Structure to design on (358 residues):
């Protein structure tokens, strides 16, 4: 079958190969025919080494498709079922799951170290234990979540990561209060979803911050009340908050420099929500006095900061009710053979989300 493979960490382009085989099928597993997958910035972060991932690997973790086969012991799923991919399935038994913090379950991360593809030259891993830039993938049954018939594969794919992450950051983690002021730094697919979440929660002012003009324009269509470049953020803070700072600031870039800017843009007693996934060697510097004196809440948000399955259901309900726009997030569509075009669109900021149709 065909799959897009990164041979070595640090390479800029993927190779679309036709000699890849999905492996590992057996008890507790399902084989999925991928129909649509989104390109998430985390895929690029894994390619360049910001996020740890053994190579060679097939990127992609935001996907949807149809079940081809189910292994022994799998219940509730059958061949032909339409499913979306959950790259962080909950085991239901670990301390995090028992506390109700299923987004912190580590069981899914263990899958990233087990090859689920192979080529004549050897094993190939799937990013985050999945690897949806492939025609088929074998995953744990918990990674395949059934979707209703009225949810298209491209919409389901987005809900599988970016939408859930952004919406959840505003709704679950930060719990934005009605009438509040919000700034969102980084307005790709996840940032736009955070903007939609803040709008749903009733924020009065939502300032979108991004260096790319087309993304700023898009943010206004999705609910931002104002969109500025990073150089204009200080002025917006002064105008909108009289210099005090925003009630909530979302950092959706994953870099210490923008996190520091986000901290300084948050009012005393306000909330800084860290949504972007950054590198392990990129350190955010805060002094002990400002931590004490400013009393700002710093809240990291992992995969939307709540139960993932509940978040999926909420996103589908909001989409059905026309309360959130998911189709509009897909600004580009490509075939698997054109995957490197999608990477270029992501890197330049041209795309909010590119759907790869497989």
């Amino acid at each position: 079958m065909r799959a897009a493979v990164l041979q070595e960490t640090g390479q800029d382009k993927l190779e679309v190969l036709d000699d890849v085989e999905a492996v590992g099928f057996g008890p507790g597993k399902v084989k999925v025919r991928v129909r649509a997958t989104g390109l998430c910035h985390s895929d690029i972060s894994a390619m360049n080494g910001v996020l740890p991932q053994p190579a060679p690997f097939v990127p992609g973790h935001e996907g949807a498709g149809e079940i081809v086969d189910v292994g022994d012991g799998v219940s509730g799923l059958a061949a032909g079922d339409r499913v979306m991919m959950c790259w962080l399935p909950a085991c239901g038994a670990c301390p995090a799951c028992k506390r109700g913090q299923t987004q912190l379950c580590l069981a899914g991360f263990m899958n990233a170290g087990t090859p689920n593809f192979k080529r004549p030259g050897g094993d190939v891993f799937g990013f985050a234990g999945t690897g949806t830039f492939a025609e088929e993938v074998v995953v744990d049954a918990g990674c395949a979540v059934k979707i209703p018939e009225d949810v298209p594969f491209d919409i389901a794919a987005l809900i599988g990561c970016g939408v859930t992450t952004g919406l959840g950051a505003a709704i679950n983690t930060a719990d934005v209060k009605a009438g509040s002021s919000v700034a969102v730094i980084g307005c790709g697919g996840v940032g736009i979803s955070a903007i939609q979440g803040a709008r749903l929660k009733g924020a009065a002012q939502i300032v979108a911050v991004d260096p790319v003009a087309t993304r700023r324009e898009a943010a206004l269509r999705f609910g931002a009340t104002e969109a500025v470049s990073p150089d204009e953020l200080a002025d917006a803070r002064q105008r909108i908050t009289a210099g005090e700072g925003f009630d909530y600031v979302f950092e959706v870039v994953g870099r210490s420099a923008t996190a520091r800017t986000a901290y300084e843009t948050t009012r005393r007693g306000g909330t800084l929500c860290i949504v972007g996934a950054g590198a392990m060697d990129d350190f955010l510097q805060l002094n002990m006095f400002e931590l004490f004196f400013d009393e700002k809440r710093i809240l990291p948000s992992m995969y939307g900061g709540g139960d993932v399955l509940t978040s999926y259901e909420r996103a589908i309900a909001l989409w059905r009710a026309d309360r959130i726009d998911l189709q509009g997030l897909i600004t580009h569509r490509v075939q698997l053979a054109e995957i490197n075009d999608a990477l270029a669109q992501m890197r330049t900021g041209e795309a909010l989300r590119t759907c790869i149709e497989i």
User: Anything to note?
Assistant: The radius of gyration is 20 Å. The mean pLDDT is 96. The chain is about 30% helix and 25% strand.
